[in-house]
Amino acid sequence: MWAAAARLWLPPRPGRGSPAGRPRSAGPPVPHRLAAVSEPTRVKGARTLSGPGDGPAVPSSPAAQGLLPDEPLTELAARHGLTPSSARPGPVIYLKQLWQRRHFVLAFATARNIAMYSEARLGQVWQILTPLLNAAVYFLIFGVILDTRRGVPNFIAFLVTGIFIFNFTQRSFIIASRVINDTRELIRALHFPRACLPLGYIVIELQQMLISMVVLIVIVLATGEPITWYWLMVLPAIALQTLFNVGVGFILARIGAGVEDVSQLIPFIVRTWMYASGVMFFIPALSTLYLHAKLSYLMQINPAAVYIALVRNSLLTSLRHTVAGYRPYNRQLCAAGLHQQAHGVLHPALLNSCHLVVGNSSLWLYGVGWAIAAIVIGYLFFWQAEVTYGRG
Amino acid sequence: MAAADPLVVVDDLNIVYRVFGSRADRGTAATAFLRILRRQHRPSVREVHAIRGVSFVANRGDAVGVIGRNGSGKSTLLRAIAGLLPPESGAVYTTGHASLLGVNAALLDDLTGERNVVVCGLAMGMTPREVKERYQGIVDFSGVGDFINLPMNAYSTGMGSRLRFAIASARSHDVLLIDEALVTGDAEFRVKSRQRIEELRAQAGTVFIVAHSMAQIEETCNCVIWLEKGKIVQAGDDVPGIIDAYLAATGGQPLNRGNAKN
Question: pTM for this structure?
Answer without folding.
Answer: 0.74
